[in-house]
From TrEMBL:
Membrane-topology annotation of the record: Multi-pass membrane protein
Annotated source species: Streptosporangium lutulentum
Residues spanning the membrane: 33-55, 87-114, 139-160
High-level lineage: Bacteria, Bacillati, Actinomycetota, Actinomycetes, Streptosporangiales
Claim: Membrane is one of the keywords in the record: yes
PANTHER family linked to this entry: MEMBRANE PROTEIN, PROLINE-RICH ANTIGEN HOMOLOG-RELATED
Protein name: RDD family membrane protein YckC
InterPro entries: Pra-immunoreactive, RDD
Location in or out of the cell: Cell membrane
Keyword entries, A-Z: Cell membrane, Membrane, Transmembrane, Transmembrane helix
A Pfam match: RDD
Length: 163
């Protein structure tokens, strides 16, 4: 089954299936629309850059009471730090073949490495902190989990619905 977005770009759905699997490892191979992918990655980078530079949080981090701060000052990251942090993920994912592996290592660093800091945090000299009061029992986690489940369900319904 294909995402409705990819069916807009491909007339032959079999070609789209092959291109999706190939483009995951090499985003440029067989994808005549790779400039669109690069542009969308750039837009996401700008979004995360501005969110972290001005507030230190995205809406999702606010929901989970997390905040990105400079490792040295403890304040929200400056424009440079937020920009570096925002560019690492899309830059890594756009590297053919190796980008997927580097992204996997980056994600696993949350659990196993660098004091639970991802590659983008290490490079930008930032850290994600938990703002929740340990004595406070709120609905933050359960509410966030509910939001994630609802959004996942909506995505799956849209994804599997016939076009």
């Amino acid at each position: 089954m294909l995402s409705p977005v990819y069916s807009l770009f491909y007339d032959d759905l079999e070609m789209a299936d092959e291109s999706i699997s190939v483009s995951y490892l090499n985003p440029y191979a067989g994808n005549p629309y790779w400039p669109v992918d690069v542009a969308i990655s750039g837009l996401f980078a700008v979004y995360f850059w501005l969110q972290h530079a001005f507030w230190g949080q995205t809406p999702g981090k606010r929901l989970y009471r997390l905040k990105v701060v400079s490792r040295t000052t403890g304040e929200s990251p400056d424009l440079r730090q937020a920009g570096v942090r925002a560019l690492v993920y899309p830059a890594v994912m756009l590297v053919p073949y190796a980008g997927v592996l580097i992204n996997l290592v980056d994600t696993l660093c949350i659990f196993f490495g660098w004091k639970r800091r991802c590659l983008h945090d290490v490079i930008a000299d930032t850290v994600v902190i938990d703002l929740s009061d340990p004595g406070r029992r709120g609905i933050g986690f359960l509410f966030g989990l509910g939001v994630v489940l609802v959004l996942t369900t909506v995505f799956l319904l849209v994804y599997v619905m016939p076009g």
